[in-house]
Amino acid sequence: MEEPIVVLLPGERLLWSGRSRRVAPVGREWFRLAVGAILVSGPLAAGLPEPDGGFPVMAVVVAVFGLVLAWGPVLWRLRSTRRAVYAVTDRRVLVADRVSGRTREEYLIDLERPVLRPGQDGTGTLTLKRWDASANFFRAPVGSRKEWLPIELFTVPDAARLCGLIEAEQARG
Q: Is the pLDDT reported for residue 116 higher than 90?
């Protein structure tokens, strides 16, 4: 896996670039994994003793479906986080996928102030939402789904300093 090339615009400065420090379930994700395992073990255990000695196909189908619902979002975030490379310039925030090469970018002037959730070891998660992400039309967000999803920089080292850099550049405008 190569590092994606982040192309700077003319006159743009790179303020910070990096990846997630660790890729592990955090907070409620541990709870989701545990509850998913418990909820799946019940139907699976109940369906195992088949009276006619056959294979409990329905119990296995329910168990697999339950695992996908409970563990799928957690595993998807872990997969995405492991592959992501972050870059912050004086104008934009970029998240690049190291495998596919796709890049998502948002201009700092289009984003609200970053929300910092600090970790215990100096890392933290930054959430950056677009100003227009809260605009609703009949309780549905305006624009495409990709436009109103926030950019999240997971477990970045020295997150408080990065948050300060982003806020300073937003204030500079």
A: yes
Angle formed at CA 59 by CA 55 and CA 65, multiple of 5 degrees:
130
Give dist(CA 41, CA 45) in Å, integer: 6
The structure's pTM equals 0.63
CB atoms within 10 A of CB 30: 12
Could you report the per-residue pLDDT of 74-90, keeping only the tens digit for each?
777 667 666 778 889 99
Environment class of 34 (CB within 10 Å of its CB; exposed 0-12, middle 13-18, buried 19+) = exposed
**Structure-block tokens of residue 60:** 């296995």
Report how far apart the first and last C-alpha atoms of the chain are (Å, whole number): 35
Q: Give the distance from CA 104 to its chain's centroid.
A: 13
Strand ranges (E), the chain? 14-18, 84-89, 92-97, 103-107, 115-118, 124-128, 136-137, 140-141, 151-156
Q: Choose between 164 and 28: higher pLDDT.
A: 164
Please name which of 83, 106, 80 lies closest in space to residue 3, comparing C-alpha atoms. 83
